[in-house]
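Example record for the data management plan.
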Amino acid sequence: MSYDPDRVIEAYERNVGIEDEGEKRHTLRTEIPREFIKKYLRPYDVVLDAGGGTGINAIMMASYCEKVTLLDVTPGILRRAEENMRGSDVAGKIELVNGDITDLSRFHGGAFSFVVCVGDAISYVLDRRFEAMAELIRVARPGSILVIGCDSKLGFMRLRLAEGRLDEAIEIYRTSECDCGMGPRTHLYTVREMAELLERIG
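Corresponding structural encoding:
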């Protein structure tokens, strides 16, 4: 299926509160990426938080590094991020930018020493995932750390099977796509496919 940013924006505008609650909840989905981030982030890093959502990761990262640019495609999500940052000691170190991970042309090559793209962003761009990954790599300085997260093909198949939805599990196996809980179509990855995507981009 082709990527439709308007569909993603529409879904997230309807679900700002749900997304914010999910980012604030301590789950494997939120905490595993944060542990990797804290392990590798350095005080002098300039970070791109691509598809950064309501700012919970950005606030955490800004307490460890020099500066964070939080980029998200949904205006309502960015407004919530601004609310979450208000009164924070690190608010002055975070820049909010409305934009799409498939086009980071506003940033020059090597603009960031640390790039984060966790959650669903790389999954929602569907057929434009190669462009998105190439852009994330282009704006990263040589030798930078990239922390990438995506929707799991095996995880979604397991969930559908546990719900007794065998037909949907088979469809996910066949297409590597499904409609996620909030509405947008998402591309689901295996570890091997993510590795191949990264290798193909170089």
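Summary line stored alongside the record: The mean pLDDT is 95.
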